[in-house]
Amino acid sequence: MLVDSCTVAELTTYIRELFDTNERFQDVWVEGEVSNLSKAASGHLYFTLKDNKAQIKCVMWRGTVARQVTIPQNGDAVLVHGKVTIYDVRGEYQIDADRIRPLGVGDLYQQFEELKARLNAEGLFDEARKRLIPEFPKQIGVVTSPAAAAFQDVQNVLRRRYPVVEVILSECLVQGEAAPPQIARAIQRLNQHSQVDVILVCRGGGSIEDLWAFNDERVARAIAESRIPVVSGVGHETDFTIADFAADLRAPTPSAAAELMTPNIDDLRDDARRLERDLTGVMAARIRALQVGLSDKLWALRQVSPEAGLRQYRQRLDDWNTRLVSIQRGRLALLRERLSSRVSALNAANPQAILERGYAIVSLSETGERVTSAGKDAPKPGVGITVRLHDGELKARIEDKDTHERYKRTLF
Question: Does one domain contain both 17 and 49?
Answer without folding.
Answer: yes
